Amino acid sequence: MPRYYFHVQDGTGLDKDHIGTDLRDPDEVHIEALKVARELCALWDDLPPGDLDKMAIEVVDASGETILVVPFSEVAEAGS
Fold it and tell me: Are 15 and 5 in contact (CB under 8 A)?
C-alpha cells in the first residue's frame, strides 16, 4: 500500500509529516486530507479568515511529489 505524507502549510513555513499514512487510492488520500484540515481548522477556530487563505494540507507521495493541496479556506467554507 502506498504511503502519503500530510504536510501542513501554516503561512510561514511547512510543517512536514515525517511518519506518513498508508492509503489504498487517491480517494482515500483526499478523504484523509480533508479530515486533517477540518481537525486543524477546529483547533484554530479563532484565526481570522485571511489567515486560513495562507494555510493548506499538502499531500506528497513517497517520492516527494505533491499530489494534492487542500486549502484550509475551502474546508472552513464547506463547514459553514
Answer: no
